[in-house]
Automatic annotation (TrEMBL):
Gene source species: Hibiscus sabdariffa
Protein name: RNase H type-1 domain-containing protein
RNase H type-1 domain location: 21-87
């Protein structure tokens, strides 16, 4: 968990565990949100990514809850056996609350969704900007301190 740490970054899970990060974007005028979810393995490689729109969303807090549920659904649908779910949930529904720099890939996915109308899921790949952000996380984890 990286609450408020100065140089906080995404950290990989250990072993066969998959880490799923989630975030949401919210368009208040349209009551519309987009969930961004990304599942990565211990090497930081993207196992799955998704952008899911939600209509009639009342507020940003609810958008984050939808994103958390979308992360849980991704874990279930991909049949991952060992999972860590992390996100920036604004309420106390989860204990794994992370700062934005730890959640950059999911954040980019959520904001990338504003250019699409329907859900998009990608297995073992992602749009180039998302792949680049994931590679930066891998570089950060593997770089000497």
């Amino acid at each position: 968990m990286c609450l408020g740490a100065l140089y906080s970054r995404w950290s990989p899970p250990s072993g066969d565990t998959i880490k799923i990060n989630f975030d949401a974007s919210f368009i208040v005028q349209l009551y519309l949100s987009f969930s961004g979810v990304v599942a990565r393995n211990a090497k930081g490689l993207i196992m799955a990514a998704g952008i899911i729109p939600h209509h009639f969303v009342a507020n940003p807090e609810l958008a984050e809850v939808y994103a958390c549920v979308d992360a849980l659904n991704l874990a279930r649908d991909m049949e991952f056996l060992s999972v860590i779910i992390e996100g920036m949930l604004l309420s106390s529904l989860t204990r794994s609350i992370v700062c934005q720099s730890c959640n950059a890939v999911a954040h980019l996915l959520a904001h990338d969704g504003t250019d699409s109308s329907g859900p998009r899921f990608l297995i073992e790949e992602a749009p180039p900007i998302i792949e680049q952000a994931a590679l930066q996380d891998i570089w950060w984890v593997n770089s000497p301190i």
